[in-house]
Predict the structure of Diguanylate cyclase.
Amino acid sequence: RACDDAAASVEGFAFWEAPSVPLDTLHHDLRAALAENQLALHLQPLAALPDRVIRSYEALARWTHPRLGDIPPDVFIEIAERGGLIGDLTRWSLNVALRHLATLRGAGLEVRIAVNLSVEALQAPGFVEQVLDLLHLWRVPGQGLVFEITESALMRDIVRCSHLLAQLRQSGVRIVIDDFGTGYSSLAYLRRLPVDGIKIDRSFVQDMARDRRACRIVETMIDLAHELELKVVAEGIEDEATLELLREAHCDLVQGYLIARPAPAEDVIERRLRADKA
Ligand code: C2E
Ligand code: CA
Ligand code: CA
Ligand code: CA
């Protein structure tokens, strides 16, 4: 029962109150939800600094359970990873994200969409080919797609991951290291990884305005990334003061509730296309 072990280590379970539900029930229900297309995809914009122009969005999966209501993504992603469903879930996210990307690009918008990629999905046989097939199917260039892969997962199997990521990059797809700063990786590794950018974890970002040391750490990460010609995203920006500090530190992109909360993809796109026409 791999899923039972997962429960203890899922961060989300600490605050998510549905303790009476056995995890294999959730696993079973998630499998059904995937088969019956019951997941939803939300989009959250990333704003480029200094002018806050929006040229990319992060795709975030949502699951509303028929009886239990909204299940936190951290919880169902972990269940999917441990229970052999992450390949299907990733393909679902990618397919829906590319469908939306095709709509946006079809309207003449040069935007990108970032999809979260678990190492288990990356390493499944044939994954790179599936990505190329889907890009072809939706007729969008690789340049429109970004994968975010968490630092800790990447470091667990750095050699194999690097090889696969390099293959994806050959088609123009970009790779960003997610939750940067939390995975104990040596900064020196950055030089050797086939990646285009880092996304600084929100735990650092959210302390910036009240903690000088957190601020200095973020500034140092940004400077180092820039030395290595990597782009920097900061996530979890909730106030103007933090945005201003990041602007001064020459951060490239910011994401967070201050800019916009994640919202259903259809709504985000409809608004964007309307704003663009006006
Ligand atoms: P993540 O990739 O680090 O995603 C960022 C999380 O921060 C999202 O949580 C987002 O809703 C939240 N967030 C955005 N702005 C703010 C802010 O200003 N303040 C705060 N406090 N939070 C903010 P969410 O949607 O709950 O997703 C949690 C995690 O689940 C994601 O973390 C990602 O690792 C995973 N996930 C979500 N969708 C997918 C997916 O389709 N595939 C995979 N493999 N993982 C996914
Ligand atoms: Ca992410
Ligand atoms: Ca993150
Ligand atoms: Ca995270």
Summary: The two ends are 55 Å apart (CA to CA). Strands lie at 39-48, 53-65, 69-71, 112-116, 145-150, 174-180, 197-200, 231-235, 253-255, 263-264. Residues 179 surround calcium ion (ligand 4) (CB under 6 Å). The CA atoms of residues 196 and 229 lie 8 Å apart.
